[in-house]
Design goal:
Helix content: 55-70%
Number of helices: 2
CATH superfamily: Nucleoid-associated protein YbaB-like domain
CATH topology: Ybab, Chain: A
Strand content: 15-25%
Radius of gyration: 21 Å
Strand order of the largest sheet: 1-2-3
Largest sheet: 3 strands, antiparallel
Number of strands: 3
Order of helices and strands: HEEEH
Low-confidence stretches: none
Length: 103
């Protein structure tokens, strides 16, 4: 019966960790991340669950003869925001993965 006490304690720890993970994931999902490109000519706003909420394009970024540049600026700003989300996710959630064997 001694092993059962250890198992119950371990299950309580796992349940506690699951609740903490859910809470931190919710905080992360409700956070906002801004990505910018080239002197903030293009700015994007994402939620922590990688949903774009807003995009701002300054008039000087729009050149009808150079649409490729505008597309590149949008990609740069988007990738900047997504990288910030990934960094924040690793910082908040990575500690849980480190405690799980095999991950």
């Amino acid at each position: 019966m001694r092993g059962m006490g250890n198992m119950q304690g371990m299950m309580k720890q796992v349940q506690k960790m699951q609740k903490e993970m859910v809470a931190e994931q919710e905080v992360l999902n409700n956070s906002e991340f801004t990505g910018t490109a080239s002197d903030q000519l293009v700015t994007v706003l994402f939620s922590g669950n990688k949903k774009m909420k807003d995009i701002t394009i300054k008039p000087e970024a729009v050149d009808p003869d150079d649409i490729d540049m505008l597309q590149d600026l949008i990609l740069m700003a988007t990738n900047d925001a997504l990288a910030k989300i990934d960094q924040a996710t690793e910082a908040k959630m990575g500690k849980y993965a480190k405690n799980i064997p095999g991950l």
